[in-house]
Amino acid sequence: MAADAEGNPLRPEHFKRYDESPDPEFYAQPRLVTHIDDAAIAAAGAFYARVLPAGGKVLDLMTSWVSHLPDASRYTGVAGLGMNAEELAANPQLTEWVVHDLNANPVLPWADGEFAGAIVTVSVQYLTRPGEVFREVGRVLREGAPFVVTYSNRCFPTKAVAAWQMLDDQGHAELIGLYFRMSGAFGPVTAYNLSPNPGRSDPLYAVVAHAAKAPAGNEEAAEGSPSAASCLAERAA
Ligand SMILES: C[S@@+](CC[C@H](N)C(=O)[O-])C[C@H]1O[C@@H](n2cnc3c(N)ncnc32)[C@H](O)[C@@H]1O
Questions:
Q1: pTM for this model (two decimals)
Q2: CATH number for 109
């Protein structure tokens, strides 16, 4: 991807999808399935427990019937945003939830500084306006609060943006780092390879940054060396 004069390599065509029909149509049917295997789910939960501060309210963006938090009672509340009411109503960890299409409207329905942490689990590839959404996440987080974006190597290929489909696992970390930078709402970005049993279970990666008051610089540190892998079709799609 060639960068423009400001160093941003992303163009509108990078956010095109094979299926440009409205997202509410695609998510109208509930999918009460998991999208990564048990080992990757456990790795995500352990990482969330490590990074999200206890005693505050957490935002689970792009969620479904599971939030992958090992112990939700550590938080004063867990707010969920997703696309399907039946999935969200079935999520036992959510204390409040809203059906909200972030590609139609990236503005989050919460007040400034309401959350002590935020997560997106295996879903960031579906955002067509990631800079705006990440800026909004920065707004609803307290200063210094973490935003954790985890991903694996599976997706609904017709709904993942072109930029995601062009890149491998390492490239996805860099793309998410770019989303953080584009938002202007976060400090330094760090990437982690959390894959539990390389080659034997689903890979899992996290990219994390903390909400900053003013636009901040960035530095990326990718741990491990994620192998090149394309976006495999969701097993349960
Ligand atoms: C692969 S599922 C992952 C669900 C959940 N985070 C998990 O870990 O099981 C993708 C999720 O992205 C959400 N999503 C997709 N497009 C969205 C959009 N335009 N606005 C908000 N959420 C969206 C859907 O609610 C869907 O549940």
A1: 0.90
A2: 3.40.50.150
